[in-house]
Amino acid sequence: MTSTNSQAMIRFENLRQEFTLTGTTFTALDGVNLDIADGEFVTVVGPSGCGKSTMLNAAAGLLQPTGGQVLVDDRPVQGPSPRTGVIFQQYALFPWLTVRKNVEFGLELKKVPARERTAIVDHYLELVGLTRFAEALPKELSGGMKQRCAIARAYAVNPEILLMDEPFGALDALTRVHMQEQLLETWSKERRTVMFVTHDVDESVFLASRVIVMAARPGRIYKEIKVDLPYPRTEEMRLSEEFAKLRSEVWAAVYHQPGVAEAHQ
Amino acid sequence: MAEKDTIISPRNPPPGAAISTATSATSRSANSAKNKETRSRKLSRKAMLTINFGSVAAGLILWAILAATGLVGLPGPLEVLARGGELLADGTLAEDTGASLLRVLSGFLLGSALAVPVGFLMGWYHVGRAIIEPWVQFFRTIPPLALLPLVMVTMGIGETPKIFVIFLAAFLSCVISTYQGVVSVDNTLINAARVLGANNYVIFMRVVVPASSPFILVGMRIGLGAGWATVVAAELLAAPNGLGMRMQQAQQFYDMPTILVNVIVIGILGLLMDRLLLMIEAHLTRWQERR
């Protein structure tokens, strides 16, 4: 599954990841090759244990690969970098900081002057619709608002890449739909290379121009499905025949792949 | 308001869709407020205080009755109050209170001041943990007071041994708590800081320290309680002044009112100090989600 693309923003090269848990070593990822182009929105979907989050963590520099490598902009990933923003499922907001201070965190580390910081924070709070909640503490926000704050925080340091690890997984179905639309809205205004990990088939089709379906044991890329729906994606598209077709294609690839039945016993 | 430019926000749903999404988002954010409501409906603050005072008054009346019947050889509240007035007037009470407080506070401050860095060292570095943990665990099982005879032999009978024992009591309870706090910092928060460009120093100062502050404050409260309990007992053994020493002295003269005055003062001071720390804690950790 190697698509040779010289402009790859993220390139997984023969990535292999092993973990040792209580003495037994298991292979989370084996021979993963994938190119994600600059500005592309790619979703990665698969059964639990297929290593999709492991793949994302390797790209984020939070994991040292056992074999192979991940290249960002043609350079091997050595560790976390503000060039690669990460959005976590558990929001990971600093609970002792206000919404504003959370978004400002990365900018302070980059030593951006105070006035500029304020302007950038204001801009992104507005982009995600949290202007009125700038002085609120995370505990006062709903799950969707927390995740929007995390998105603003990731955007604020101006990363080239956004890695999103099941960001809407903890939200209820309606909020999730709403967040998907808002994310695409934000992304179309400020385009970044996005790798979005999810277990939700609808979500994977609605957001991406390409869906990567993973297989488990060992985690590997199973299938790649192009989504030819144009952006901006609309509510009508969700109900269209084409969407339904893509959804069943992804669904079949996720749930009817060889070995899935045993994996869930 | 800048909200206007946002195409999609909870207050401004996309056309033809997600109206219910918007309501769900709003009702979710209102959830916490609703929780508070149900809790406060149980008893208002005023009702709680009224019942508190009623309970205390009932206890005092019961005490007065018990003393009046002579069933137990206790002096009544009025007698104790009168004795308290005398002790206050001749300056003994102030001197004793001051001496005891000084010992507790010096021991407590020294203990906490050392416990916080040591606890961080234990939580942050595995080597530090391996070196320090056996000592802490060993001394934790010994009541600090049990060390008093040893400490008095080596340090004499001045202020040093008493402060040292209180220091030890405060240190041991605070160090364990700080260590627990550092160990239990959410790894996702550390990763979140790391991907925003934080190095180890920044992660420590801006993530680990605030995240473990609730644990540290709980440790300090326990430490203060332990220090207060220790000082009185330490003064019972040997001291020129202090609330514990005064009780010990009164015991020899069978001076029950004086003993009770000191007992009550110890209780009130302990309560006040705990409340004060609780207020500081509530202020410093107001960001915490409380269930």
Automatic annotation (TrEMBL), chain A:
Keyword check for Methyltransferase: no
Record-given protein name: ATP-binding protein
GO terms assigned for molecular function: ATP binding; ATP hydrolysis activity
Organism placement in taxonomy: Bacteria, Bacillati, Actinomycetota, Actinomycetes, Micrococcales
CDD domains noted in UniProt: ABC_NrtD_SsuB_transporters
InterPro entries (UniProt xref): AAA+_ATPase, ABC_transporter-like_ATP-bd, ABC_transporter_ATP-bind, P-loop_NTPase
Keyword terms, alphabetized: ATP-binding, Nucleotide-binding, Transport
Domain of life of the source: Bacteria
ABC transporter domain location: 10-241
Pfam families to which the protein is assigned, alphabetical: ABC_tran (PF00005)
